[in-house]
Design brief:
143 residues, alpha+beta, Aminopeptidase, six-stranded mixed sheet, 3 helices, 28% helix, globular
């Protein structure tokens, strides 16, 4: 049988799930880890349109927020903080040891620091001298 590696820009979520399933199967086999849980909290208007939200995954004792976005008309009104608080509550209920998020220097570093996150490490070398920060908040009550 021949195999081919094919580049796919913006792959469909179902195909990415195949990769996740393979990773989770290995984690179960090698370390008896439970399946990853993916989550999202959405802000919706009265018509159901998404105006913001956060999403990510609950991964082996850590909750990772991979996306946080709030539409411009709703910014600076506490929605981002509320979304992150909901994610943190989920992390605590799931008995996570920590919650993590990433951001660029030109995005929301100060916002996350105000919420109690600290820079775990940073990665330099991105375009226009941008710095990518990996932030973490330990959940003492869950450790």
């Amino acid at each position: 049988m021949n195999y081919e590696i094919i580049y796919e820009k913006n792959p469909v979520s179902e195909d990415i799930q195949i990769l996740n399933d393979g990773i989770m199967e290995e984690a179960k086999r090698k370390k008896d880890m439970k399946q990853l849980d993916f989550f999202a909290f959405f802000i919706r208007d009265e018509k159901g349109k998404i105006m913001g939200g956060c999403g990510g995954d609950n991964m082996y004792g850590g909750l990772f927020v991979g996306q946080l976005w709030v539409a411009k008309p709703l910014r600076n009104k506490g929605y981002g903080t509320q979304l992150m608080q909901k994610a943190e509550t989920l992390a605590k209920e799931s008995k996570c040891n920590f919650i993590a998020v990433n951001t660029f220097d030109w995005e929301a570093l100060g916002f996350y620091k105000k919420l109690g996150f600290y820079v775990e490490f940073e990665r330099k070398g991105f375009d226009k001298n941008s710095i990518f920060y990996f932030l973490r908040k330990d959940l003492i009550s869950c450790i």
